[in-house]
Specification:
heterodimer, A: mainly alpha, ABC transporter involved in vitamin B12 uptake, BtuC, globular, B: alpha/beta, 6-stranded mixed β-sheet, 4-stranded antiparallel β-sheet, 10 strands, 46% helix, 18% strand
Chain lengths: 372, 340
């Protein structure tokens, strides 16, 4: 590190040491500060000109949902090294779980809070269901099977008319409420923002704890060398199933929140594009680095939903020929493609590489003894 | 602790392994005395590594059985054709329940009943699937009654007290040396998913104790001070040491070393020999090794077994092996053995 960097960092050393020791508290403090700073930032130019604070907060909420999804996918891809291209399926299952449990369509109105847990359990069950037959597969083969699973789920939801109302989806889903204190509404984005922030913090703390645990190490071992892991006594079958289950249950929980936020679920919300966008966030942020992946998701989401929209208005305002016919929002898929290709070519370890990958990609150090 | 038991540490009876038409190991009987250092030697392609892999649970034998510490662990798989039944049978009650569910509410099934019955059937299926995959001990005993047996998997062998290293070193390259050892200690740690999530006191204490022991193990193989070094960055000789340390971290009764001195210079070879002796003497671990370097083999082995073309051609004390005409013939050809 440069000498200037050292000088700047020096006063923060004790703070850093403290948070390294109390990481969960550090995550809590960081997320709280950020969640206060972001809405404040939207009050100053140029951000205040783009959209109202409420619209911004709404966008941040969606971005955080998306970031949680990416963190969950990162457990499967980044930690255990299992390339899962059908991750949106678990997101969908969580969403439909809540939709069926709390909407006029089913006529049942269960409270929101226990359904968070139910969404997680449904996700975990399907995670195991997908994981079990694919345990022997690796790399490309696993990717193809998970891709298929990711398509089967929305198509089933679309065709099971009787249970899901097909393409129309299930609307009018109940908003969460804390009885007697707080009723979430569509107009006021703040309660949902708060809920998402709390969940985000919890999920991040839990993922970090898992990473450093006995289970996290077995995932590392499987990713590095499966045969060696087995010969170290790791039951790779169970460890992989646990990775699938943890990843899927996070998607399930997030699916419940997403359904409650939008108050509608349709099969179209959970197509391949969702899986690919989560994957793009993981690759952009840096596989295996939880904070990096969450940041990657924020960047991609805000880029596509704010910047592309701005581009639309800009082109319209200046009335640039040809370009004003183009809807830039349609270009989000191009964006994912560009992100994936560019990152793989230029910086495969991601913007914020995981500690381990950073070392993997670091230039070979040649010591006193020369090359060995 | 294991001194209380008698009989060999490992007993292989009639072990055969075929790959298609190729017989890699042919009906080998083999015993490793408790507390010994034994070696398997043989020319290239003699089937040594295949035999090793059968013992370690990586390949199932085509015929024969293997006992570790008196426990029969490995035998050829049987009843594979009956396995799908294992998945379907336990699901039937759940599917029955789901059908009953649907019938009980009459012809016009409501949404709730529909979803609930699908959920019940699904849960039953996932349960059966999990049982079939995880195979707890009681489940194994149960399926043995209908004639389905599966040989122990590599991780089962580690639990039973066997550890191994590989001919081409297989470390977790992007983990530190300390983390490599911690993975090796996996079977003796008990932290669960939920323990990790809530960071229970048990988990914290276990982690701290494990780290302490991992440092001791690193010191044992003379890698102290390299705890945070990346495994991939260690020089070749030290990678071999780390792999051995990772293997003994699982507190094995029997340690399998696949060519531990391959590619080492004479000084490193000498250190390796000393280490293998210390593993036996100080940790009380029985050692079985495959080795090409005859100085190593003759120097430390109590017993030597010679394989050629998948068959055992000789076994005994190093002295006897050295002068055994069959062995000389296998290594040097018939002419040399006849003294021409």
């Amino acid at each position: 590190m440069s000498r200037i960097g050292d000088a700047v960092n020096a006063p923060f050393a004790p703070v850093r040491a403290y948070f390294r020791k109390h990481r969960s508290f550090g995550i809590f403090v960081g997320v709280v500060l950020l969640s206060i700073a972001l809405p404040l930032l939207t009050r100053v130019p140029p951000f205040d000109g783009i959209q109202s604070t409420n619209a911004w907060v709404n966008a941040f909420t969606t971005a955080a949902i998306y970031a949680m999804l990416a963190m969950g996918l990162n457990v499967v891809i980044g930690f255990a090294g299992l390339l899962d291209l059908g991750y949106a399926a678990f997101f969908a299952l969580g969403g439909y779980t809540y939709a069926l449990a709390a909407s006029p369509f089913s006529g049942i109105h269960l409270p929101f809070w226990p359904m968070l847990l139910a969404g997680g359990i449904v996700g975990a069950i399907f995670g195991v269901l997908l994981g079990a037959p694919t345990l022997r597969l690796r790399g490309d083969y696993l990717a193809i099977v998970t891709l298929g699973f990711g398509e089967i789920v929305p198509i089933t939801l679309m065709n099971a008319d009787k249970f899901t109302d097909g393409v129309n989806g299930i609307g009018g889903i109940d908003k969460p409420s804390i009885p007697g204190i707080l009723q979430f509404t569509l107009i006021n984005p703040w309660p949902m923002y708060g809920l998402v922030i709390v969940l985000f913090t919890l999920i991040m703390i839990m993922i970090y704890r898992l990473e450093d645990s006995r289970l996290g190490r077995t995932w590392d071992a499987i990713r590095e060398d499966e045969l060696a892991a087995e010969s170290s006594g790791v039951n790779t079958v169970i460890a992989k199933l646990q990775a699938f289950a943890v990843g899927a249950s996070i998607a399930g929980i997030v699916g419940v929140v997403n359904a409650a936020k939008l108050t509608i679920v349709t099969p179209d919300q959970f197509r391949f594009a969702v899986s690919i966008s989560a994957l793009a966030a993981v690759v952009l942020g840096g596989m295996g680095n939880t904070i990096g992946v969450a940041t990657g998701a924020f960047i991609i989401y805000l880029f596509q939903s704010i910047l592309l929209k701005q581009l639309n208005t800009l082109v319209e305002n200046f009335n640039i020929p040809i370009l004003n016919q183009v809807d830039f929002l349609e270009f989000q898929y191009v964006l994912y493609g560009i992100v994936l290709v560019l990152m793989m070519l230029k910086r495969p370890q991601g913007i914020f590489p995981a500690r381990r990958r950073m070392r993997e990609f670091a230039p070979l150090k040649i010591g006193k003894g020369g090359l060995k | 602790m294991s001194a209380a038991k008698s009989g060999p540490m490992l007993r292989a009876r009639g072990v055969t392994r075929k790959f298609g038409g190729l017989v890699a190991v042919n009906s080998v009987d083999f015993e490793i005395p408790r507390g010994s250092i034994s070696a398997i030697i043989g020319p290239n392609g003699a089937g040594k590594t295949t035999f090793f892999n059968v013992i370690a649970g990586i390949y199932a034998p085509t015929e024969g059985t293997i006992e570790l510490d008196g426990k029969p662990l490995i035998s050829p798989p049987t009843g594979a054709g009956r396995e799908p039944i294992l998945l379907v049978l336990p699901t039937i009650p759940f599917i029955g329940l789901a059908i009953y569910f649907l019938l009980a509410v009459g012809g016009d099934t409501g949404l709730v009943e529909g979803v609930a019955s699908v959920a019940v059937a699904l849960l039953g299926f996932v349960g059966a699937l999990l049982l079939n995959i995880i195979r707890p001990a009681w489940y194994n005993r149960l399926i043995k009654r209908i004639g389905v047996t599966r040989p122990a998997r590599p991780n089962d062998m580690v639990v039973a007290g066997l550890a191994r290293t590989f001919q081409n070193i297989r470390l977790y390259k992007s983990l530190t040396t300390l983390e490599n050892i911690l993975v090796g200690m996996h079977v003796h740690m008990h932290g669960t998913l939920f323990g990790a999530l809530f960071k229970t006191r048990q988990v914290r204490e276990e982690e701290a104790a494990a780290e302490q022991r991992a440092r001791e193990l690193l010191a044992f193989v003379d890698l102290a001070g390299m705890e945070n070094e990346l495994a991939a960055n260690l020089p070749y000789g030290k990678q071999r040491l780390l792999e051995i340390a990772r293997a003994i971290a699982s507190r094995p009764k029997l340690l399998l070393l696949d060519e531990p001195a391959a590619g080492m210079n004479p000084r490193e070879t000498e250190e390796m020999t000393a280490l293998i002796r210390r593993i036996r003497d100080e940790l009380g671990i029985t050692v079985l090794l495959i080795e090409h370097d005859m100085r190593v083999v003759m120097g430390i082995s109590d017993y030597i077994t010679v394989l050629d073309h998948g068959e055992k051609i000789a076994e005994g004390l190093p002295k006897a092996i050295r002068t055994n005409p069959k062995v000389i013939e296998a290594y040097l050809g018939r002419g040399a053995a006849a003294g021409h």
